[in-house]
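The material for today's practical consists of a large collection of protein records. Backbone structure tokens are a discrete shorthand for how the chain folds in space. An example says more than a description, so a record of this kind follows:
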Amino acid sequence: MIIVLKPDISEEQIRHVEERIKNLGLKPVISKGAERTIIGVIGEEDKIRLQPLEAIEGVEKVMPILKPYKLASRDFKKESSVIDVGGVKIGGKEVVVIAGPCSVENLKSLEEVAKKVKASGARMLRGGAFKPRTSPYSFQGLGEEGLKYLNEVGRKTGLPVVTETMDARQVPLIDKYADAFQIGARNMQNFDLLKEVGRTKKPVLLKRGMSATVKELLMSAEYIMSEGNLNVILCERGIRTFENATRNTLDLSAVSVIKELSHLPVVVDPSHATGKWSLVAPMAKAAVAAGCDGLLIEVHMNPEEAFSDGAQSLKPDTFDELMKSLKRISAVVDRSI
């Protein structure tokens, strides 16, 4: 259920509507758009259907949302959301490129790659301090030491930082150092973790699960948003199919499907989708043409020596060439990089 408020409603009247909702044992979630303020109501809708809320001064209309993902739906918010991550806006006209190594290995290499990707036009820095690996014997990340490196390099270069959160217990620590949480594909349906990042106000980059449908991705976003954090960015990173020529199958149709169903911005990760550095550039170009709001690209100074995912990492020179191509493609589709 959503409550659409009149354009001239006062803050006092908004608080009054909120209190009425809370008194019914329901949870109000406010979204302030360019033209309208909307209150999403979370809880048992039967409690609100018999209430004369439209009689409250400042309320324009009360509408049901039929989709199971209420707050992530375009029914809740018609205009596309723009999420601010440390001053970088994702979801607007600019296609935001987020680049950096798969894993934070040491301070020197992280700073080198951060300077390189920024010079090429990247707007945010990525890097893993906690790494979910298929094998328990593979490099698991530097933990808090890696977070400190990310924070230091991010401040030096002026690049906001996004890093993966694997466990609800890590949320306060990562909240201290990073500008955005990343929820990886393996944790897309870790509902306790989703609720925990939802209790913060920090942006969340939510990756699609390996075998998840678009609806399941949106329902996971709903878990975060239902806790009051509407700053969610969705990520298409490929899904598992019968095809084994690439690591995953990049579902670019999901970009358009999600944009029809949801107001949330969508970024694409061609690195994890393909698993091969030679395929990253063509898939990144296709993603921009398909209408994505951002790209997540792995870049390493020397991929042969990378602690993880070297096979899909671009060298800085290759990344620079890709950025030049992406700028031309984005202009054709009335975007910018």
Summary: The longest strand covers residues 27-32.
